[in-house]
Structures are given as C-alpha cells and as structure tokens.
Amino acid sequence: MTITVGVADMKHSSSPEDVIITHALGSCLGITVWDPVARIGGMLHVMLPCSRIDPEKAAERPFMFVDTGVPLLFKEAYRLGAEKSRLIVRVAGGAAVHGKSDEEDLFKIGKRNVAMLRKLLWKNGVLVDAEDVGGHCSRTMSLEVGTGRVILRVDGRERELAGKVG
After folding, report:
1. How confident is the model over 113-138, as a mean pLDDT?
2. Mind giving me the DSSP string for 5-67?
3. The whole model's pTM is what?
C-alpha cells in the first residue's frame, strides 16, 4: 500500500509491503527513519525550522516545524518498537526553489530547515546516514518499509538515496 505524507504531516508503518511517499519537497524537508530489525519506517514532511514564530500554530500542527515535528517522528518510531541505536535517518529537500542563486533566496527557508535539523539531531546524538539537500529543485521522496530503500525523484529521474548503512 502507498501511504502519502502531506505537507506538515507524518506517517509510520510496520507493514513490509508499504511505501511511504511525499511530494514537492522544495524548501521543505522530508525526513525518514527506518529500523532494519523492527522493520518500522516513518516519514515527516516539515515546512519551517522553528515553532517559536507561531506557538499556536505549532500546537495545532506540530509536524509543520522541524523543532516540534522531528521529536514526534522519533517518539512514534520508538512507540512502534524501533530503537534509537538502529535507526537509519535519511533527509531530502531544503532547496532554494524561489531563485536561481543564493542571493535571490531572501528568506533561506531551505537552508534554515537543514541547519535546524542538523542542530537538533546533533544535540540528540543522531547521525544522518544519507542526504540530498540544497540546490534549486523540488524532490519526491519515498521509503520502502520492507527494505528501507529511500528513492528520490528529481527532474523526472529516480535514484536511490543510499548511505553508509545500506
């Protein structure tokens, strides 16, 4: 079954036949976690780095922000049986889609999303296994729950986002 993650949304699965997918990762980030032993996968599609800009919105839609969504992504994976030491984390997005140069990207949301994610993961002792961030293109990201394979579609081409672990 295909499980679609919308913007400011999160999904998990423990069914090996499931594929979790999100579309239109421009400045947004797609973050996947996968436990190869428990065979649990999750994906988060975040829009903005920091919930302090709108605490009320963050309370209503915590998956909108890196600092509130990422902890929930991990907590739900743990609740389903994943273990932190086994989690494989992969990230895509964080592009500057509103300009062809860094100077044209006034708010630098993509860069700020990536910086916030790296800071949060570093503080919690979590390493990113593979990433495809930055640039100027939109991405589609999918996670095969049974295998942990992360597939990116960029400019009509598909490729695996493979890291050190697999």
Report:
1. 96
2. E-TTEEEEE--TT-EEEEEEESSSEEEEEEETTTTEEEEEEE-BS-GGG-HHHHHH-GGGBHH
3. 0.94
